[in-house]
Design a protein that fits this description.
17% strand, six-stranded mixed β-sheet, four-stranded mixed β-sheet, 15 helices, TIM Barrel
Length: 447
């Protein structure tokens, strides 16, 4: 071995060396081609296939997967010799589900203050292990992509990176790092006595004034944020702020949105309140999360500007039913949001606001994300529209429609199968019998 090669092998890993000095540590040609054939193709068969490009059900339920990509769909798909065939029988094949509003680094605790204590006392490493468990539950529920809208200590960034490198199993994650908001607002931390717990600052997303808010956006992007999450209004599960008041000024909102969009990041705006949502829409945000108190005028404005509603019906229903487990100041807000949300959602359907499925998982236990489909249908959404909201339309909101959201050749092999005809029983989405992520089978529950 040459001295140069010896030195580099000592101080740099092979993967890095290979990138810096092609050929320096390359294996012999025979070793390079030994596994070139790769694993056999996988053929998925079922009685039905939901076509998310059209919203229609098809009877040619065949998908051919090679590696991590789809290479054939429907009756014209050709299965290579030696393919592994998985026949699911009376089932429906669908694109992997997409949840555009999750919190994978936290979870509901029925004893509110115990949950506060646990979150305060856990180390970052411990919290990361919990997050990995919750990510796995989410994938097992059929959700192959999620947008994570707010976490702490960059645990979400680490989780995303570990999943991308197959260190742990979970859905593809687009994440926001810290959520952005004003001092004392919903995105600020619990108002601990400042002498005991250091107040959050720009790195943690707390900003006041346009330039500080612009810098806070840059802080999140610096450490790996794929999307920017803001708290335009107060929230339900924070103790110190009203649920519906604006918490960012028009100037602050414009600074955040313009900076994020310049860097090609989308902006999701938490807003229960109508005035706050309207200000955020006028500033150019890409989605409104929750939207409990939105008026029809604001919903029409959303439709005209192509701003998505992410209703998080799972979370709103959950906090309404669990209101008695929260402190009184939170319980009151939970009941008010729950009471208003149903009428808002029905108005959004009637007006034609674009809707993407998001659950706010973490407010309720992870792994129950699939309930969102049925809850939207209960309020008047058609089953095929609900499925599109959790596949094609969610992918469009996230800007990943070239890779996910529909079952088409060339796209990532993110596939879910559910029993029977999903359009006849939308709640079959709650218990998938097969989940494939990037061509890897994460769940297979034979009948």
């Amino acid at each position: 071995m040459s001295p140069l090669r010896s030195i580099f092998r000592t101080v740099l890993p092979g993967a890095v060396l290979g990138g810096l000095f092609p050929g320096l540590i390359a294996p012999p040609a025979s070793a390079q081609t030994a596994d070139s054939a790769g694993p056999p193709a996988i053929v998925l068969r079922a009685a039905r296939l939901f076509d998310a490009t059209t919203g229609r059900m098809r009877t040619d339920g065949v998908i051919v997967v090679q590696g991590e990509r789809i290479v054939g769909v429907g009756r014209d798909a050709v299965a290579p010799a030696g393919s592994q065939v998985i026949d699911l029988g009376d089932a429906t094949l669908l694109p992997g589900f997409i949840d555009v509003h999750t919190h994978l680094t936290s979870e509901y605790d029925p004893q509110y203050y115990r949950g506060v204590y646990d979150n305060l006392m856990r180390t970052q490493a411990e919290q990361a292990l919990y997050a990995a468990r919750w990510a796995r539950r989410t994938l097992e529920a059929g959700f192959t992509t999620v947008r994570n809208l707010g976490g702490t200590y960059h645990v979400d960034i680490g989780l995303r990176n570990a999943i991308n490198k197959y260190v742990t199993e979970g859905p593809r994650i687009l994440t926001a790092a810290y959520s952005l908001g004003s001092t004392g607002g919903h995105c600020d931390q619990t108002p601990w006595p400042p002498e005991r717990v250091e107040p959050a600052g720009l790195l943690q997303g707390v900003c006041n004034g346009p330039e500080a808010c612009r810098q806070a956006v840059r802080e999140q992007m610096k450490y790996g944020a794929d999307v920017i999450k803001i708290c335009a209004s107060g929230g339900v599960l924070s103790e110190a702020d009203p649920v519906d008041v604006p918490q960012l000024t028009p100037e602050e909102l414009r600074a955040i949105v313009s900076e994020a969009h310049t860097w090609k990041r989308k902006v999701a705006a938490h807003s229960h309140g109508d005035v706050a949502a309207r200000l955020a829409i006028e500033a150019g945000v890409d989605s409104i999360e929750h939207g409990s108190f939105l008026t029809e005028d604001t919903l029409r404005l959303m439709k005209s500007r192509g701003v998505y509603l992410v209703p998080t019906r799972c979370a709103v229903e959950w906090v309404g039913k669990q209101a008695d487990t929260y402190p009184p100041q939170i319980a009151e807000k939970a009941r008010a949001a729950h009471a208003a949300h149903e009428a808002m959602f029905k108005a959004a359907l009637r007006i034609g606001v674009p809707i993407a499925l998001g659950t706010d998982a973490g407010v309720f236990p992870h792994g129950q994300n699939g309930r969102e489909f049925g809850l939207m249908v209960d309020l008047g959404m058609s089953p095929h529209a609900a499925l599109l909201a959790g596949t094609r339309d969610a992918a469009r909101l996230l800007g990943i429609e070239a890779e996910a959201g529909t079952l088409e050749s060339g796209k990532l092999a993110d596939v879910v199968a559910v029993r029977g005809d999903v359009l006849a029983n939308i709640r079959s989405t709650e218990q998938p019998v097969l989940v494939m992520w990037h061509g890897r089978i994460a769940v297979h529950r034979p009948n």
